[in-house]
Specification:
By secondary structure, the chain is of the alpha/beta class. The protein has 2 domains: about 170 residues, Rossmann fold (3-Layer(aba) Sandwich); about 70 residues, no CATH class. It has 9 helices and 9 strands.
C-alpha cells in the first residue's frame, strides 16, 4: 500500500460569475521515504495540489490519503517549509524551533533536547538565544527546517523554500535539506519552477500541464543521481540528459497553450 495516494482529484475555483478548473483527473502515488517534485509552468496547479495534499483545501472531487488517513486529520503530523521562514521576530531561535512542539503539546525534556541537538547538527550551534534578525537568510531557513522536523512529521511539504536565497546559499541548503531528510527517512513533496533543483533532489518528478492543471508526464531520476548529494548531481552527464528532456517537454507545453 502506498504511503500517499491521490485518486481522481479534480478542483475548481468558483466565483459568482465563473468557474475555473484548476486541476483535472490527478492520480499518483508516493511511497514512504520518497522525495517527489511537482514541476510545471505557472498556472498549472502545483500549489493548489500541495494545498490539497496538506489538507488546507478539500478537492472538489476525488480523494487523498496519507498513511491511510485524510490529510485534514493529520495537521500535527504534517511539516511545511515555505519560501519565507515565518520565524517570529520577537522570539529567540530556540523559542521559534520549539514552537511547533509546544503547540502540539509534544514539548518534553526529551523532545526539547532532540530539537536543540538537530540545531547543532544543521550548523546552528550557539544561536539558540539569538533573534531571527541576527541571522542570514540561509541560517533562518535552516532554523525553519529544524522547527519543521522537531515535531517528527509523517511528511514534509516544501513550497519553493530556496527561491528567495542567493544561488550559493540555495545550493548549500539543497544539500543540507536532502541529506537531513534522507537520514531521517522522511517523505517529501517539493513544489518548484527550477528543473535543476527538481532533478538534483528528487526520486521522481511529476510534470504538470496547465489549463486545466493535469499530470502530463512522470520522470524517474536515474539511480546514479539519487545516490549522491544535489551539488554533485549537476556535474553528471545523466543530469544534463534529463534536464534537456524535461526542458523540451516544458517548451512543448508552453507552445501548445
Amino acid at each position: 500500500m502506498s504511503f500517499l495516494s491521490v485518486d481522481n482529484v479534480h478542483h475548481s475555483y468558483f466565483t459568482p460569475k465563473s468557474a475555473t478548473n484548476a486541476l483535472k483527473d490527478i492520480n499518483f502515488e508516493i511511497q514512504e521515504g520518497e522525495f517527489i517534485s511537482l514541476l510545471g509552468p505557472s498556472g498549472c496547479g502545483k500549489t493548489t495540489m500541495l494545498s490539497i495534499l496538506s489538507g488546507l483545501i478539500q478537492p472538489t472531487e476525488g480523494s487523498v490519503l496519507i498513511d491511510g488517513a485524510v490529510p485534514s486529520s493529520l495537521t500535527s503530523s504534517i511539516g511545511y517549509m515555505l519560501q519565507q521562514d515565518y520565524l517570529f521576530p520577537w522570539k529567540t531561535i530556540e523559542e521559534n524551533v520549539l514552537l511547533g512542539l509546544k503547540l502540539n503539546k509534544q514539548l518534553t525534556a526529551k523532545s526539547r533536547k532532540t530539537a536543540l541537538n538537530l540545531l547543532k547538527e544543521i550548523g546552528l550551534a550557539g544561536v539558540e538565544k539569538q533573534y531571527p534578525r541576527q541571522l542570514s537568510g540561509g541560517m533562518r531557513q535552516r532554523a525553519a527546517l529544524v522547527r519543521t522536523l522537531a515535531i517528527n512529521p509523517k511528511i514534509l511539504f516544501l513550497d519553493e523554500p530556496f527561491s528567495a536565497l542567493d544561488y550559493q546559499t540555495k545550493l548549500k541548503l539543497e544539500d543540507l535539506v536532502f541529506e537531513t531528510l534522507k537520514s531521517y527517512k522522511k517523505t517529501a513533496v517539493l513544489v518548484t519552477h527550477d528543473i535543476g533543483e527538481a532533478i538534483s533532489m528528487s526520486d521522481r518528478i511529476l510534470l504538470f500541464a496547465a489549463k486545466p492543471g493535469r499530470l502530463y508526464k512522470t520522470f524517474l531520476v536515474p539511480e546514479e543521481l539519487r545516490a549522491i548529494r544535489p551539488f554533485d548531481v549537476r556535474s553528471k552527464e545523466a543530469y544534463s540528459v534529463l534536464f534537456q528532456e524535461i526542458w523540451k517537454e516544458l517548451e512543448s507545453l508552453e507552445n501548445h497553450e
